[in-house]
Each structure stands twice: as C-alpha cells, then as structure tokens.
Amino acid sequence: MRVFVLLGLLVGGWGGGFLWFLHMTGRPATPILSADGIVVLTGGADRIESALRMLAEGHGKRLLISGIGGGADLAVLARHSGVDTTALAQRITLGRQATSTLGNAREAAAWVQTNKIESLIVVTASYHMPRAMTELRRALPGTVLIAEPVTHQGNPGRAEAGRGAPLRLLAEEYTKYLISLTGLTAWIPSRDAAANAGHAG
Questions:
Q1: Structural domain span for residue 118
Q2: 55-64 per-position pLDDT tens digit
Q3: Would you call 36 exposed, middle or buried from its count of C-beta atoms within 10 A (0-12, 13-18, 19+)?
Q4: Is 132 within a domain?
Q5: 99 within some domain
Q6: Which is higher by pLDDT, 199 or 118?
Q7: CATH number of the domain residue 83 falls in
Q8: CA–CA distance, 188 with 184 (Å, rounded to integer)
Q9: Is residue 5 part of a domain?
C-alpha cells in the first residue's frame, strides 16, 4: 500500500511540476535587453537568426554560436538566417565542441573567461531555456545571465513552446530539466569528449 501511495505522490509531483513548466515556457516574450555577450545554443528553428539579429542591433558586443557542426561556417549560417554578417564576423565565435546542453555550458564558460564577459544573453528555445539556464548558472556563477527565449515570427511575442511543440517533446525536456537540477548531468557520459577527440584527429 505504501508503495502505491509513494508512487502516486511521485506522479502527482511530476504532473504538478510539468504544468508549471508548461506555464513558464509558454509565457509571452519580454523586451530584449543588452549585455556584454550573447550565446545561442543551436538545435532549433530561428535560434541562430535571432542571435545574429540581436548582435546586429547592438544588444551584445560578441556572440558565441555554441554547438555548431564541424562542416558549417559563418557564411552558410548567415545565408540561412538572412542576416548580413560582413561587419559582424570578427565578433562572432563558432563553438564546435559542444554536443549537449552541459557541453554548451562548458563551452560558454571558456568563451566568457577568454573574452572577459560579465553579462550574457542566453538564446535558445523556450522549452529548453530552464535546463540551459540551470547548466549555465552552474558553469558561470559570477556571470549575469539574461534569458531570451526564441519566438516564432508567425506568432510575435510568443515563446516557441507556445506554438504547438509536441507534448512528448515538452515532457522529455521537463524530465531532463529535473535531472539537470540534481547535478547528475555532470556524471553522465558526455558525447562532447568523443566529439573533441574526433576534431583533434
């Protein structure tokens, strides 16, 4: 009997937290602020375009595009995003080492230290933002972090999760977020090490 009660509490707790997660990630976007730097975590629609536009509009002095595949270059990214990066190229860093959110945080931490960044705008999908901010806060305890969730152009002012992201995707992301809160992600074997070895070779 106690097992069923405990199981019910766990399921209820997860469900209640998931409702909070849906509310948080579906809130309207806030006005874009400014910071020393911008980091965009690749992997979803409109993220790189949003970050490039923020840089072009002066919301940050430098930009790190974290998690870029080995074959992509800035010209290709700019062409797909529709942003002219001719005058911005010297202020953009392509991070090719990260293959996970934890890897993004570590890559950003090294970049922040190298460029003496004190405040950082974080660009990623709304549903990914809670986990990204958790890992980044852990890696960058002395840096001011400003969350800037990606919005969909077809639905201005609304975060990406609010435009019909699959419920399964949101549930998986919420579960990953809970794991990141525990700090266990640091102990899970990372794909970043294998990627680094591949690039070194």
A1: 33-200
A2: 999 999 999 9
A3: middle
A4: yes
A5: yes
A6: 118
A7: 3.40.50.620
A8: 7
A9: no
